[in-house]
Recover the amino acids of this structure.
């Protein structure tokens, strides 16, 4: 492992250890934060007891659906923006301010539109994620070196063949970054929605535990959530870095 | 406006540069030992294979990089740690500041040296018209072609009236015809300012055409294996490429350089192989 | 004899005026789409553009709005200072010190990709209900992107510019002021644009969870009573503010347009 990696590991370990000691020594009120070891124990118990399996599966399902829709929809939108530069220029300032809106405020609207089920949550995850994918797709397409397109024409490839054989592989790193963001934002959108006005799912259970001062459950669930997302992200990040490095992009 | 100096304008003695070992690789003996005297007012070029340390030589001479061993002197004083007044440097890559106009770019160094605005204005106007960029004073570098940007970098250095002008492959990114014309420009600058010029290039014809003397460097670690005298008249231009002596000079340069280039090629091949 | 070399091959034209026209057309298209949605889904679900603007006007002129707005405004301003300045300092330091940057960047990215949602209960427990929780929410949303942008800006400084400055015998202070700052400005401004939007989002969310006053509080009230008109009116207000700020930051350095 590189020197930086070792230092990083040490920093995280020291931070966790410090927190553990501070909690155990009573420096931190257990009503606020419980020791990391207790968090981990709580998380383990939650998993094993199976009480929250239903909620976990519901949340993951909604996130997955939102992510798939976000990737597909975002890709389409990004490609459309690429082919319509006028539209793209006109939209520019809006794209920057898109993420200032807490999109889950439209949750009640979606309930009325889709009913009292998981779909409004999926919708929130989707609209939160789709723009990030679109922006990354757009960047990917823009960064395909023109010489590759000229090569495709010199080889007399058809448009669909060019798209599949040359453009897509060239964009792949950016699409991967976009997909990573979609997954993160789908999580955020779905769980935020669950926090606020839902009756099930991990977000709801966390809010419920918070309201009942049930810290072990609350932190346990949070840890599970963070652990899952982080593990997923680290896998994607490592994969993405290999991708970028192999192609000489940093 | 020549430099009336008694000895060499600049000299290097036993100059060596060794990059210390880091995590991934061992120490690199990049340059040296090099011994060289630059005559006042001469046009001196250095040619050598890739990786031989030409750019390092220029950096050390300018005071931009320290020498691991040996001494460098400019106008009788030792060069160490910082760039001496009287030396100007033009780099290989485009160093123009994209956030300033052409005029402000050219004025940059003078303004930082707190010269009065009237002096700045006079010198910048003169330099820009001298170099043919006066019509583009309010344009930004992004709006210029590569050749024009390099001319801007040269103008920016010229306004400081350097007595020794160091150029590191300034025309490397340009096409052959533009390079020949830029060479004429450089000769004109040389004649009208009387400065000593030290040029690094990988193009043998460029070195042969422009210089009074050409130093040939070996493969890494680079040292000077020969200095070829051209005996050209001072008022030369690119038309000398048609003279038979030109062929002799370039022939001599390649004769000495060819073996070193092959060595350099092998060096890089061995480094890259096995990936 | 003066040799005239290259004619300017590409003097780039100014942005065509049609961008303004395009934005207007887009704006009209959005309005039409919005109106169509209202007709399809009904005014209880989505209020029409006209009704939304009217509602917004009513909200703004109501007597209590000033209090809510200044509540949000103050918390947002504080959070913005923390996230922009804090992020800038962190980013500049990490960008200029290679090892620190290498160690910290994956940590920052990992922290950033944790859904901040999951930290909300912790923030509430740490800061209690009130203004400091709101400021904390806002700051944690914006600080990391600003830092990442600033770090990237420093790393992307072209070495040749620093070398040229040293060759021109500039002092370190001069190099920092006249070379490093202009070179990093475009990317830092881009980071500020993102930071602005995210900090606003975070402050609002903080108000939704931790306050009895402010625009975020108004939002959550509207959500709980299913007051579509208010939700949309406030969303419109937020979009307008964020877009205006983003546009203003872009205009901040006019030569940014010409440079690229």
């Amino acid at each position: 492992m590189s020197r930086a990696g070792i230092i990083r590991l040490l920093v995280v370990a020291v931070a966790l250890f410090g927190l553990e000691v501070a909690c155990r020594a009573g420096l931190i009120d257990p009503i606020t934060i419980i020791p990391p070891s207790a968090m981990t124990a709580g998380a383990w118990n939650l998993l094993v007891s199976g009480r929250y399996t239903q909620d976990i599966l519901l949340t993951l399902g909604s996130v997955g659906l939102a992510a798939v829709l976000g990737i597909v929809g975002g890709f389409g939108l990004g490609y459309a923006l690429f082919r319509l530069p006028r539209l793209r220029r006109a939209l520019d300032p809006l794209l920057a301010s898109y993420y200032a809106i807490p999109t889950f405020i439209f949750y009640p609207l979606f309930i009325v539109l889709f009913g009292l089920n998981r779909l409004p949550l999926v919708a929130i995850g989707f609209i939160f994620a789709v723009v990030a994918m679109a922006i990354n797709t757009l960047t990917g397409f823009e960064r395909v070196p023109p010489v590759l397109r000229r090569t495709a024409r010199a080889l007399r490839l058809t448009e669909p063949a060019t798209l599949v054989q040359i453009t897509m592989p060239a964009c792949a790193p950016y699409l991967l970054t976009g997909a990573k963001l979609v997954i993160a934002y789908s999580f955020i959108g779905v769980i935020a929605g669950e926090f606020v006005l839902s009756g099930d799912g991990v977000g709801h259970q966390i809010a419920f535990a918070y309201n009942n001062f049930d810290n072990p459950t609350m932190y346990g669930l949070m840890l599970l959530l963070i652990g899952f997302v982080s593990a997923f992200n680290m896998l994607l990040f490592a994969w993405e870095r290999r991708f970028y490095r192999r192609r000489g992009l940093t | 406006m020549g430099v009336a100096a008694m000895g060499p304008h600049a000299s290097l003695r036993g100059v060596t540069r060794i990059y210390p070992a880091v995590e991934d690789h061992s120490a690199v003996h990049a340059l040296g030992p090099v011994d060289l005297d630059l005559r006042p007012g001469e046009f001196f070029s250095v040619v050598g294979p890739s990786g031989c340390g030409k750019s390092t030589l220029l950096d050390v001479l300018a005071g931009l990089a320290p020498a691991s061993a040996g001494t460098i002197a400019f106008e009788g004083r030792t060069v160490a740690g910082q760039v001496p007044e009287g030396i100007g440097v033009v780099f290989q890559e485009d160093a123009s500041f994209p956030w300033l106009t052409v005029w402000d770019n050219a004025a940059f160094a003078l303004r930082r040296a707190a010269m009065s605005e009237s002096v700045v204005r006079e010198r910048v106007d003169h330099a820009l018209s001298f170099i043919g960029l006066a019509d583009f004073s309010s344009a930004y570098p992004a709006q210029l072609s590569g050749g024009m940007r390099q001319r801007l970098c040269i103008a920016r250095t010229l306004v400081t009236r350097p007595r020794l002008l160091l150029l590191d492959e300034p025309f490397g990114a340009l096409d052959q015809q533009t390079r020949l014309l830029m060479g004429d420009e450089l000769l004109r600058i040389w004649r009208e300012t009387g400065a000593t010029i030290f040029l690094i290039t990988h193009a043998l014809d460029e070195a042969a055409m422009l210089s009074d003397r050409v130093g040939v460097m070996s493969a890494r670690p680079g040292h000077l294996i020969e200095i070829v005298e051209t005996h050209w008249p001072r008022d030369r231009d690119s038309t000398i490429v048609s003279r038979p002596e030109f062929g002799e000079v370039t022939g001599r340069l390649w004769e000495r350089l060819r073996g070193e280039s092959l060595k350099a090629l092998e060096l890089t091949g061995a480094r890259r192989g096995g990936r | 004899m003066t040799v005239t070399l290259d004619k300017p091959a590409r003097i780039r034209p100014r942005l065509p005026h049609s961008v303004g026209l395009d934005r207007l057309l887009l704006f009209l298209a959005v309005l039409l789409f919005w109106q169509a949605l209202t007709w399809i889904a009904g005014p209880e679900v989505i209020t029409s553009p006209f009704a939304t603007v009217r509602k917004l006007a009513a909200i703004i002129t109501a007597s209590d709005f000033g209090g809510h707005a200044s509540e949000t405004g103050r918390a947002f301003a504080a959070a913005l200072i923390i996230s922009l300045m804090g992020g800038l300092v962190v980013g500049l330091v990490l960008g200029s010190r290679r090892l620190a940057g290498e160690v910290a960047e994956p940590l920052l990215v990992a922290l950033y990709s944790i859904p901040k949602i999951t930290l909300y209960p912790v923030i509430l427990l740490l800061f209690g209900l009130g203004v400091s929780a709101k400021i904390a929410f806002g700051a944690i949303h914006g600080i990391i992107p600003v830092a990442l942008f600033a770090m990237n800006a420093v790393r992307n400084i072209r070495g040749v510019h620093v070398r040229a400055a040293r060759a021109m015998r500039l002092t370190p202070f001069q190099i920092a002021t006249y070379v490093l700052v202009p070179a990093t400005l475009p990317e830092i401004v881009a980071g500020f644009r993102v930071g602005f939007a995210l900090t606003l989002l975070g402050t609002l969310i903080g108000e939704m969870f931790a306050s009895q006053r402010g625009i975020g509080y108004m939002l959550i009230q509207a959500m709980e009573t299913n007051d579509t008109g208010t939700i949309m009116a406030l969303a419109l207000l937020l979009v307008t503010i964020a877009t205006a700020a983003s546009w203003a930051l872009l205009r901040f350095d006019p030569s940014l347009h010409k440079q690229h």
The CA atoms of residues 208 and 250 of chain B lie 6 Å apart. Chain B has two domains: 10-86+164-272, 95-161. Helices of chain B lie at 54-62, 102-112, 117-131, 146-158, 176-193, 204-210, 244-272. Chain B touches chain C at residues 62, 64, 82-83, 85, 87-89, 91, 93-95, 97-100, 108-109, 112-113, 132, 136, 139-140, 142-145, 147-148, 151, 153, 157, 160, 178, 181-182, 184-185 (CB under 8 Å).
